[in-house]
């Protein structure tokens, strides 16, 4: 198989994998058939370039170009998606990494330190509710003992899902010992670059963010015969809480979203007994995030008292603010006079940065700012500009050691 150096050809090859015929969105959840096909595609692309892929016990992958004792430069992203997600979030970084390697080879570049391309699993947390789970495990931010007991919506344990996918967690996880720097290219999930009228930017920071589970409990009853004043309806408590979250986020210029709920018994003619809702919250600082979530919780508890319901709030996944290495960002920004901008979205880059690895992110313009949706998009010309920018960044970082 000849190397597929054409970005557009690689993108075309990936387009059908995990795509819904009805919505046009992607269902590339971890440890499923679609994800296995993506892992095989990545391994084939690396093999065509003479790179040997190492796959760890949960499906994280990495392939290295070049040898030496110098700390290596790792680039890449993830291939999984949110439910009914877009094509670019994650895969753009992986395809661009492969294309950037081709650009470097066409230039006659020889790495002065190892240059790796990696793929982390379950970045979105769409199946087991833990964002960046693959990178959290390899950095030790989460242990396998903690993760193995996670369940998906169908009650499947993470340990069983990994085993059913033909992987063996006992085989161990990827080692980051040889990684000296990590660079992740990603489609921008906002409109900052659009407003600046530039195709490429670098990241300055990631806002702190997290997911909280709200369990609203009440009393199941008949929708027709139960007087309104006699009800203990947790749906009312939830509805007010969703409005409170919107209000608190708007007041502070932050983000708060209830995007997933579960209702029991989920009958049209029944007052619910339990409503479980998941809050995604993001703010400009750790203190602001804690204050916003606290305010939402207090309003929810006050409403529960009035409704005769009860509420339990538990944090499922919380990531603090991440400030990327400013000297590294300034050094790389000078290569193309690229702006350095913040992001409100979480990334594997944030996990590696928190683990002490100097990290940078390259963003590619998203013309509408829409993400986590089938409407997510980036123009081919901008994607190619991103490939060139990534190649320039990698050449700067993986060139002849000083």
Automatic annotation (TrEMBL):
Q: What keywords were assigned to this record?
A: Hydrolase
Q: What top-level branch of life does the organism fall under?
A: Bacteria
Pfam families, alphabetized: Peptidase_M20
* Gene3D superfamilies (UniProt xref): 3.30.70.360, Zn peptidases
Q: Which family does it belong to?
A: Belongs to the peptidase M20 family.
Q: Which NCBIfam families match?
A: hydantase, PRK09290.1-4
Record-given protein name: Allantoate amidohydrolase
């Amino acid at each position: 198989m000849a190397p597929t150096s054409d970005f557009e050809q690689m993108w075309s090859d990936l387009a059908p994998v995990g795509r819904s015929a009805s919505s046009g969105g992607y269902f590339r959840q971890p440890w499923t058939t679609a994800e296995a096909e993506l892992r095989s595609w990545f391994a084939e692309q690396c093999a065509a370039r003479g790179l040997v892929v190492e796959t760890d016990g949960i499906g994280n992958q990495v392939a290295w170009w070049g040898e030496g004792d110098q700390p290596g430069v790792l680039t890449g992203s993830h291939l999984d998606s949110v439910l009914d997600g877009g094509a670019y979030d994650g895969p753009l970084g992986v395809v661009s990494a492969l294309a950037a390697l081709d650009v470097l080879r066409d230039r006659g570049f020889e790495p002065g330190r190892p240059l790796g391309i990696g793929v982390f699993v379950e970045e979105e947390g769409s199946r087991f509710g833990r964002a960046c789970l693959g990178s959290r495990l390899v950095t030790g931010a989460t242990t396998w003992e903690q993760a193995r007991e996670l369940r998906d919506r169908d009650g499947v344990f993470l340990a069983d899902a990994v085993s059913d996918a033909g992987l063996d967690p006992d085989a161990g996880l990827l080692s980051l010992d040889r990684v000296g720097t990590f660079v992740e290219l990603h489609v921008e999930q906002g409109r900052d670059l659009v407003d600046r009228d530039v195709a490429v930017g670098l990241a300055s920071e990631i806002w702190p963010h997290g997911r909280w589970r709200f369990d609203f409990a009440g009393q199941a009853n008949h929708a027709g015969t139960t007087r309104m004043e006699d009800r203990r309806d947790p749906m009312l408590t939830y509805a007010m809480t969703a409005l409170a979250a919107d209000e608190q986020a708007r007041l502070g210029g932050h983000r708060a979203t209830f995007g997933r709920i579960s209702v029991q018994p989920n009958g049209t003619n029944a007052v619910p007994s339990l409503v479980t809702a998941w809050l995604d919250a993001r703010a400009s600082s750790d203190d602001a995030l804690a204050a916003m979530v606290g305010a939402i919780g207090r309003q929810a508890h006050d409403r529960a008292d009035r409704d005769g319901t009860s509420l339990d709030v538990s944090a499922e996944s919380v990531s603090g603010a991440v400030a990327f290495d400013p000297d590294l960002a300034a050094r790389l920004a000078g290569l193309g006079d690229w702006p350095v901008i913040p992001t409100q979205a979480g990334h594997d880059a944030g996990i590696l940065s928190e683990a002490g690895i100097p990290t940078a992110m390259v963003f590619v313009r998203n013309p509408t700012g829409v993400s986590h949706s089938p409407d997510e998009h980036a123009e081919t010309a901008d994607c190619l500009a991103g490939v060139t920018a990534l190649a320039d960044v990698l050449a700067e970082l993986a060139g002849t050691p000083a």
